[in-house]
């Protein structure tokens, strides 16, 4: 088993550390900034259906649903197509409106999640075009889809999804870039810039993983907290949700993810000098706004743990603890800002002596409705 884990103590840690390679593998042969191309046959073969979509409905569960939320921001910005992100279990049972010209994107690591599968089956009966973003090759959802793109993250053993999530983000980013470029809703310059940004991701993830001692110390410091709040805005809002989910799954600490601006409508009532508040606060177009949100928490004596951009000197001056990530365009920032949060939950779970690879009550793939 030690060999299978490649010298790591747990599959989860191994899979977190595999991400420079799995993201690289996902981009390899597809993302070609030198020639200005992104080659994805599933997208190329159906480019008209995709770029002319009246609406894109993303259907998923769990961590895959969070990848869908990131894609919503990307597709709306880069392709100007309205996007809805649906929990498969809710979408399935409420007799959803599916019109001609709607495209469904299904996101699933396992390709076997029952809620997602049945949701897609009924959407397909209604004539929907289904594009699958799946990790497990040949899985049920991959077979049911009309077209698709694999995430190529390799087998994921840890119950909490890590490398499959970043693989999903990489595929969805390439799709948004391709569709936006084909549609003419992004300029050539922006398309090229984002291709280069995406190509730089594996190296930047490697930088984050090179030294995790700061994150281990933060985990040790906060491991006995009873609750955590995770806040982010824009592209980092789904990252906050994913950070909270990961912590719940691995450490059994209650955690809530929220859009940072929405906290004043409820969660701020929870803030006291005991509450750790994790801000995903990298340098992006929301930066000034999130700085004020950090001030609001500090004014109420909350403990602020920030994910901040390297060389930022404002947020680190305000936060109690900081985890740095390299600078990146906000469209691809989630691929980086999610990594410290994966490590934080891993190290909190480890510090609490829990079985991080097999958390209680959870299944890797939920094949019952
Ligand atoms: C389970 C797993 C999660 C996963 C979710 C959706 O809850 O524990 O890690 O995100 O199912 O799974 P899928 O395979 O469809 O992505």
Descriptive report:
This protein has 369 residues and is an alpha/beta fold. The protein has helices spanning 11-17, 19-27, 41-44, 47-51, 62-79, 88-93, 114-125, 140-144, 163-183, 188-199, 201-210, 213-222, 237-251, 287-299, 315-318, 334-351, and strands at 31-32, 37-38, 55-60, 83-87, 102-108, 129-134, 147-150, 227-232, 254-259, 276-280, 303-309, 321-325. The protein has a five-stranded parallel β-sheet, sandwiched between helices. Helix 2 packs parallel to helix 9 (163-183) and helix 9 (163-183) runs antiparallel to helix 10 (188-199). The protein is globular and about 55 Å long. The model has no long low-confidence stretch (mean pLDDT 96). It binds 6-O-phosphono-alpha-D-glucopyranose.
Write a compact overview of the structure shown.
This protein is α/β, with parallel strands linked by helices. 46% of the residues lie in helices and 17% in strands.
Can you give keywords for this protein?
single chain; 369 residues; alpha/beta; 5-stranded parallel β-sheet; 16 helices; 46% helix; 17% strand; globular; binds 6-O-phosphono-alpha-D-glucopyranose; glutamine-fructose-6-phosphate transaminase (isomerizing) activity
């Amino acid at each position: 088993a030690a060999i299978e884990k490649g010298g790591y103590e747990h599959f989860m840690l191994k899979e977190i550390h595999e991400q420079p390679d799995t993201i690289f593998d996902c981009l390899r042969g597809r993302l070609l900034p030198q020639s200005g191309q992104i080659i994805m046959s599933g997208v190329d073969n159906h480019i008209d259906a995709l770029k002319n979509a009246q609406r894109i409905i993303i259907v998923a569960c769990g961590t895959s649903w969070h990848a869908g939320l990131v894609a919503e921001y990307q597709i709306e910005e880069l392709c100007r197509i309205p996007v809805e992100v649906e929990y498969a279990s809710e979408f399935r049972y409420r007799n959803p409106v599916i019109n001609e010209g709607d495209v469904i994107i299904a996101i699933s690591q396992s390709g076997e999640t029952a809620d997602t599968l049945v949701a897609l089956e009924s959407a397909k009966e209604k004539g929907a075009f289904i594009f699958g973003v799946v990790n497990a090759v040949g899985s049920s959802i991959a077979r049911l889809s009309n077209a698709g793109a694999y995430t190529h993250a390799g087998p994921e053993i840890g119950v909490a999804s890590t490398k499959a999530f970043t693989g999903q983000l990489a595929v969805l980013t390439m799709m948004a870039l391709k569709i936006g470029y084909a549609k003419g809703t992004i300029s050539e310059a922006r398309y090229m810039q984002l291709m280069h940004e995406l190509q730089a991701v594996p190296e930047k993830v490697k930088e984050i993983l090179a030294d995790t001692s700061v994150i281990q110390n933060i985990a040790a410091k906060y491991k006995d907290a009873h609750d955590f709040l995770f806040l982010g805005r824009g592209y980092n809002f789904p990252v906050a949700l994913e950070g909270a989910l990961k912590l719940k799954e691995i450490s059994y600490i209650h955690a809530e993810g929220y859009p940072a601006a929405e906290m004043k409508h409820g969660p701020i009532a929870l803030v006291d000098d005991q509450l750790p508040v994790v801000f995903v606060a990298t340098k992006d177009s929301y930066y000034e706004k999130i700085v004020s949100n950090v001030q609001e928490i500090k004014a109420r004596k909350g403990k602020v743990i920030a994910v901040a951009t390297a060389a930022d000197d404002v947020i680190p001056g305000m936060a109690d603890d900081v985890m740095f990530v390299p600078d990146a365009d906000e469209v691809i920032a989630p691929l980086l800002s999610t990594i410290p949060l994966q490590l934080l939950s891993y190290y909190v779970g480890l510090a609490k002596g829990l079985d991080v690879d097999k958390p209680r009550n959870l299944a890797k793939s939920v094949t019952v409705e």
